[in-house]
Design brief:
The chain is built from six helices and ten strands; from the N terminus they run E-E-E-H-H-E-E-E-E-H-H-E-E-E-H-H. The protein is an alpha+beta fold.
Length: 244
Amino acid sequence: MKKTSLFIVIALTLGFYGCGNKMIETETFCSERIIENDSVNFSTKICIEFAEKGKQAIIDSINSTLVSTILEVNFDGTRIDAINRHIDIALADYQSSKTFPAWEFYEYIDGFVTFLNENYLCYQYNLHYYAGGTHPLEKIFYLVFDLKTGKKLTEEDIFTLDGKENFWQIITEILSDTALYPENKTYKLDNVALNGNFSFEQDTLIYTFNQYEIAPYSSGKIDVKIPYQKIKEIINVDLSQLVK
């Protein structure tokens, strides 16, 4: 009988981000669990970069959002416990499935900071997931935090009252460029809502559609990169703060 059970927990301090006269320190926690035997084929590895040092209320707000959004559990202040609770729930769901033990389960999550200044923290997490079916899912999600409040920004926060509708028009215009998106004839843009999956770069707003949102699985994720100058009239925030 083949039997393997592996449980690993790692905590590494990796990030030190200077923001003017401030310093934000981050710490990445990883947990991995592999169970393989005649009836179980379960594998998961999760690494999350958490905020550690700064104004406590802001740090707590950011970490609480990371845990509730990425791990879908309540945050009690203990980072590694939150990761392991997510893994416990995934294992229990897998073992209680009607198709168990006929299929394998794996989930890999990697969350990390992509951009930071004194005003905003941009975060990305990648999800690679399989729970039966013809193929796995690979998705990328973004979160943007206001460092004055620690709150996650939504489209309602960054766009003017009419800005969201105009923004969607800008997106569809960009996606219609066959040179940039040669498969755009397969895109289904009618009755598609904005998904809130955006992030900032130094001079660009990135908007991402994951598999199946507007295109077939084979198209993968679709990134729409929009220069700030193109949306400056419909955005609610001071663009100069985004690019410092």
